[in-house]
Design goal:
heterodimer, A: about 425 residues, alpha/beta, Rossmann fold, 2 domains, six-stranded mixed β-sheet, 16 strands, B: about 325 residues, eight-stranded mixed β-sheet, 8 strands, about 15% strand
């Protein structure tokens, strides 16, 4: 039954239906509504057999999840932005130990300058943490991905991050279908841990490993993610058979047949991209979209197959690596190496800046007409940049850049759009 | 476990043989059925106070819980010397995650056990002083504040010994470490710094807080047993001399721990719900020099011009403890 609810509420309800046994919560915008919703479900008794632990930091949240998972409980937490960075050390530990924690990341920018709005800098910064990263395009997919995430995590003994765009998805109200308890129970078996702290069968977990075996232990992590490449589409297919919805998988293609230009992106921006592509298609432009769901593991073969036929490839990213450019682009380029395509990286939507159809259309037409630079920052206000660069040149003590630019813009706080 | 008055038959010794006690009063280590949780083959240094303390603590906790115990370990000497891959010295379920998160990991284990209805299984978390008073302090405070059902044991050797003897928030003033070298006008660790975590635990209202040393192992066992009778957060702070870091002969580990108590520098007490409920009084009160002199980390105090003033300040600290905890008892030295 579809109900008009907030994305975060839908996620809270579906996580509850997955019967987590330990939930650890530390608040950070825009994740708060998820853990608030779960806290209420535990308090009212709607979610039974679950310990809800209010912790003192994200580092503790992931640490509690590590302990809980190692003791055989299905463990869940949610975070965003600075919180994800603060738990970074524990993220690597959870994956290194092979503990199938599931976590929602309500994607948000990273400071400085502090910014609470959406982009993918947070999850991208943990690209190499050993977690599986699945990106939701819509709130419905975010809901569905959580059911699949627990199944995938526990089958592979690998932690899974479900990434959903902060505010754009988490705070959006729309008609959503939350799977029923009965259906989730049929899809998601109880957690059977590969390793567990059990006094009747004592094991030591977390031993020190030196050069003699470190490579092999780490290779196994790589191997598990490679195996996940096979399981992710299978689980998505099983989910589709059980729930009647096409959610998850490695990637989705949209109007890519005969496309000479393909735009690849992740997350909620895909909706706007598809609308833009529809309009361009009506005008006769052969352009399509690839929505990447699984960023880790990165589906090299599937990406090559999806975009390999195009002459021109645009990777649109909501994060970037300072000093290089695209992050997703680097992996995509490896996937299509040798095909001789033209490559563009477009950095867009940083810190919550809306990615509009008008801007996307302009960018796509520039690409099709051969006028798009290899690396572009969409809607960059060049005038503001030049003014700040001039200040830096003019005076040794030019002051804090962010505050200078806000003064130029004429507002304190967010820029109105 | 209760205690009973002992009649001493030997003059000049405070040692009491187990044969003088009823079987139920004997030490856990005297029991041939003891768990021997930290088995031989580990790689601790000769005379390691931490290895000794950990074996007594974990064995006592195992007896108190009839073997239904899980241990969580912070990174540090105890973790490194007990689990060099692919070997392990632990005979109980044991988890090492990170340096700074053992209290939170233990919270997670306890929550998982509760959620699964295994509340008979108890949780012990352990770490060194660096993992406890410094890098793990936020998680420790959170665990205390939530009153999670965890006994946290800090084995305090007063520095980062595993990384090569650097200063921690538990390093005493005047002590030479690799980051507070015995050079300059004020050699060694500065005065006026450091944390007293047992008192901080008491300020959290933790149900059971105690200090102990490896000089009185029966007392240590008893405190572990009493701690396991309580549910909720508990804290045990154990002074464990480190021959490597302290520059003391391995054979003197027990004696130096005892001198720490007999000077008053390390008060041994028990507290419930934030109030001190029991103190181990000093049997033979000695000046701090007697404790400091056998340790090379304090050698400069006996040669440097600033030494006498520093020694006086350390003596003041000991005197302050004696006064605060009434370490000489109500009627003076016993």
């Amino acid at each position: 039954m579809r109900r008009q609810i907030e994305g975060a509420k839908g996620v809270a309800e579906v996580v509850a239906a997955c019967r987590p046994q330990v939930i650890c919560a530390y608040p950070i915008t825009p994740q708060t509504h998820i853990v608030e919703g779960l806290g209420a479900l535990v308090r009212t008794g709607a979610l039974r057999g679950c310990e809800f632990v209010n912790v003192e930091s994200e580092f503790a949240a992931m640490s509690v999840a590590i302990g809980a998972s190692a003791a055989g409980a299905r463990a869940y937490t949610a975070t965003a932005s600075q919180g994800l960075l603060f738990m970074s050390e524990a993220l690597y530990n959870a994956s290194g130990l092979g503990l199938p924690v599931v976590m929602t990341v309500a994607n948000r920018a990273i400071g400085a300058p502090i910014n609470i709005w959406n982009d993918h800098s947070d999850a991208m910064s943990q690209r190499d943490s050993g977690w599986i990263q699945l990106y939701a395009e819509t709130n419905q997919e975010a809901i569905d991905l959580h059911v699949q995430a627990f199944r995938l995590a526990e089958e592979m003994s690998v932690p899974v991050m479900v990434c959903m765009d902060g505010f754009v998805l988490t705070h959006a109200f729309e008609p959503l279908e939350v799977p029923t308890q009965e259906d989730v129970d049929a899809f998601l078996p109880p957690f059977t841990p590969r390793q567990v702290l059990d006094p009747s069968e004592p094991v030591s977990i977390g031993a020190m490993v030196g050069p003699e075996a470190f490579t092999e232990v780490r290779y196994l992590a790589f191997h598990r993610q490679r195996e996940a490449l096979g399981r992710i589409p299978e689980i998505a297919a099983e989910f589709a058979a059980a729930f009647g919805r096409d959610s998850g998988g490695l990637l989705h293609t949209y109007r890519c047949e005969d496309a000479r230009t393909v735009v690849l992106a992740m997350g909620s921006v895909l909706g706007t991209l598809k609308d833009t592509v529809d309009a361009l298609r009506d005008e006769g432009v052969a352009i399509g979209v690839v929505g990447l769901t699984s960023f880790r593991p990165f589906p090299m073969a599937a990406v090559r197959e999806a975009v390999g036929g195009a002459e021109r490839l645009i990777v649109l990213e909501r994060a970037f690596s300072v000093g290089v450019g695209g992050i997703v682009s680097a992996d995509v380029h490896m996937a299509v190496a040798g095909l001789g395509q033209l490559h563009h990286t477009v950095i867009a939507g940083l810190g919550g800046r809306p990615v509009t159809r008008a801007s996307l259309r302009r960018m796509m037409l520039e690409a099709v007409e051969g006028r798009l630079e290899p690396l572009t920052f969409l809607d960059l206000d060049r005038d503001l940049i030049d003014r700040e660069l001039a200040r830096v040149r003019a005076r040794p003590r030019s002051g804090p850049a962010a505050e200078n630019i806000l003064r130029d813009v004429g507002v304190v706080g967010a820029r109105p759009h | 476990m209760g205690t009973r008055e002992i009649r001493y038959f030997q003059v000049g010794s405070h040692a009491v043989g187990n044969r003088l006690l009823d079987p139920e009063q004997r030490t856990v280590q005297a029991d041939p059925e003891r768990a021997n949780a930290l088995t031989c083959g580990h790689r601790a240094c000769q005379g390691c106070g931490e290895a000794l303390g950990a074996r007594y603590v974990v064995d006592a906790a195992l007896r108190a819980t009839a073997g239904r115990l899980v241990a969580v370990n912070a990174t540090g000497c105890l973790e490194v010397f007990s689990t060099p891959y692919p070997e392990t010295s632990w005979q109980l379920p044991w988890l090492h995650s990170l340096f700074g998160n053992a209290p939170a990991v233990a919270t997670g284990v306890a929550a998982a056990l509760r959620a699964q209805g295994h509340e008979d299984v108890r949780v012990l978390a352990q770490g060194g002083d660096g993992g406890t008073v410094d890098i793990g302090f936020g998680c420790l405070s959170g665990m205390f504040e939530r009153d999670d059902d965890v006994l946290y044991v800090c084995y305090d050797n007063q520095g980062y010994m595993n990384t090569g003897v650097q200063r921690s928030g538990a390093t005493p003033p005047g002590a030479r470490t690799a980051t507070t070298e015995a050079v300059g006008d004020a050699p060694g660790a500065p005065f006026g710094q450091g944390k007293d975590v047992p008192r901080i635990a008491m300020a959290h209202g933790v149900g059971y807080v105690a200090t102990a040393t490896v000089a009185d192992l029966r007392d240590l066992e008893g405190k572990v047993e009493r701690a396991m009778e309580v549910r909720g957060a508990r804290y045990l702070h154990v002074l464990v001399p480190c021959p490597l870091g302290w520059g003391s002969p391995p054979a003197l580990t027990i004696r130096i721990a005892r001198l720490a108590t007999q000077t008053g520098l390390f008060p041994v007490y028990e507290a419930r719900d934030g109030e001190v409920t029991g103190v181990t009084t000093i049997r033979r009160h000695v000046p701090v020099e007697e404790y400091l002199r056998p340790q090379k980390r304090f050698a400069h105090l006996f040669s440097h011009p600033s030494g006498p003033a520093a020694l006086a300040r350390i003596q003041e600290m000991a005197d302050r403890n004696i006064e605060r905890y009434r370490l000489l008892g109500d009627g003076g030295a016993t």
